[in-house]
Amino acid sequence: MQHPFRGSLGIDFYKNQSTVKWLILVVAAIIGFGSIIYTKRLVDDLKERERANLNIWARAVEYASSTPEGPVLDFLYDIIITPDNALPIIMIDSASADFFVTHENVLATNDSLKTKEVKEKILYKVLGKMDAENDPIRLEFLNATLDKVESVQYIYYRNSYLLRQLSAYPYIQLTVIAFFGVIAYLAFSFSKKSEQNKLWVGLAKETAHQLGTPLSSLMAWVEYLKGMPEMEGRKDITDELQKDVYRLEMITSRFSNIGSAPALTNENVYDAVFNIIEYLKPRVSSKVEININAANKSGKAMMNRPLFEWVVENITKNGIDAMSGIGKIDINVGGDNEKTVFIDITDNGKGIPKNKLNTVFKPGYTTKKRGWGLGLALVQRIIENYHMGRIFVKNSQVDVGTTFRIILTKEIPANS
């Protein structure tokens, strides 16, 4: 029979979902970094092109300053200098009284109404950003008569608005992809969990239905045996049979109630634990010692007793399996505070490796050669979804043992 939670190729998706998540993360990271690297190359190429164009502009300014007025000068201003106004630029001359020679695309339209001091303050601020973004371009103005450099000026500039947008594009793209990825993951997880819930509920109700007919027959046979003359003086046999039939009836009730909110009542916690352990003791290995300790045997908590006993039974049986049928189980019942009660179930079995502690309650986790690995997943669902409590591995050491802690509330919150 194919494992119900494995694909047709035998892949256990539950056990390998962590690997699959890491694989998806690595692929997404490769795509993301690839996009960033490629865009950076484009940005660098465009930056070089913009700087080259600005260099042409700067050389044109130098040339125009030493060229007699005429058609050549008009051509430089009309065709090269004037149209190249996309970049924010500031031209300075540190040796001149007018530090800011000229500027383009720096001040907003309404800045023209501001005072000279306010404008210079804005220009200094923008100049700092330009200096941090790009190296300035040096301009040398020659004295044609003396054939020497008469003055030196510098052009500071920022990248174009389009280039700055392109630089930010891959990060915006990755943010959007991550946002939709999270939404898709949550939707997928909810859909998968809903599908699992339907599967478990359907399986449980079908099991309860199938158990109903033979259980009714067994109840009739027990009553028949009680009336047989041969059973006089053997009340112990019929009592044990009656206990097992009652047990089957309770199991059937548990399965039939899965999928619907169970009724919770205020029950004595110690009595519930004692009742299920007393039933288990004659039915497990005589080499297993089970002890129950309680500082206060009258402590109560809100529970559905049949489901809670199922939880204790499941964890206890897991502990017995972990000890290979030889060892000791200690159950400690106590009160954390005025609002909660805890139940610690400790075995001295083989323990749980640290790398498995986060997966023990996931469907499919099992250390047995046979089984579907649904026991602890159902246990967690019963305690946390139905009882509004908590269950977790309090501590575990390999070859030393494991302690599971169950926390129940003494009063269910009104909004639950």
Task: Describe the protein in words.
With 416 residues, the protein is of the alpha+beta class. It contains 8 helices and 11 strands. The strands form 3 sheets. A 5-stranded mixed β-sheet has the order 6-8-9-11-10. Strands 2-1-4-3 form a 4-stranded antiparallel β-sheet. A hairpin with a 3-residue loop joins strand 10 (390-397) and strand 11. Helix 4 (161-226) runs antiparallel to helix 5 (235-257) and helix 6 crosses helix 7. The longest helix has 66 residues, at 161-226. It is rod-shaped, with a radius of gyration of 40 Å.
Cα end-to-end separation:
40 Å
Give the strand content.
15-25%
Q: What's the name of the CATH homologous superfamily of the domain at 262-409?
A: Histidine kinase-like ATPase, C-terminal domain
Mean pLDDT: 78
Order of neighbouring strands in the sheet with most strands: 6-8-9-11-10
- According to CATH, what is the class of the domain at 262-409? Alpha Beta
